[in-house]
């Protein structure tokens, strides 16, 4: 499997992601939106977006591992963060880039401020698509 990440000429410089990701994978995985919930289903880090980012990162890594994928196999991410004047979307982006999931965000990525997410107190959710290695292990 080959994954190519491109920034075509004539487009703006990006802060780490690429405008286009091309994968020749035969199989792909579409992860459900990863939320800041612990194993018991309880919300982690009420009011603390960075604690929630860290839980989302841990959950996403576990789901990727379950299908024998790594952050380098991610071909698309969409990051949803509740809109709050006290919170910078850029701060969330930088926290993700400093995490063990960082290689996932070199692919085509979108960061959105939203008014609300599915669980009371939820501040972030991550939607991921990964190209899977050829083996089905």
UniProtKB/TrEMBL annotation:
GO terms for molecular function: deaminase activity. Coiled coil: none annotated. One of its GO terms (cellular component) is cytosol. Belongs to the RutC family. This is Enamine deaminase RidA, house cleaning of reactive enamine intermediates, YjgF/YER057c/UK114 family. It comes from Asanoa hainanensis.
């Amino acid at each position: 499997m080959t994954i190519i990440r491109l920034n075509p000429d004539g487009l703006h410089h990006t802060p780490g992601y690429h405008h286009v990701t091309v994968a020749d994978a035969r199989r792909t995985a579409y992860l459900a939106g990863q939320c800041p919930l612990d194993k018991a289903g309880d919300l982690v880090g009420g009011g603390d977006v960075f604690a929630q980012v860290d839980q989302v990162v841990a959950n996403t890594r576990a789901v990727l591992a379950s299908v024998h994928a790594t952050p380098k196999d991610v071909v698309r991410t969409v990051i949803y963060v509740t809109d709050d004047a006290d919170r910078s979307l850029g701060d969330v982006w930088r926290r993700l880039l400093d995490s063990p999931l960082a290689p996932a965000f070199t692919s085509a990525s979108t960061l959105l401020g939203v008014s609300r997410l599915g669980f009371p107190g939820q501040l972030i959710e991550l939607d991921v698509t990964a190209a899977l290695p050829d083996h089905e292990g």
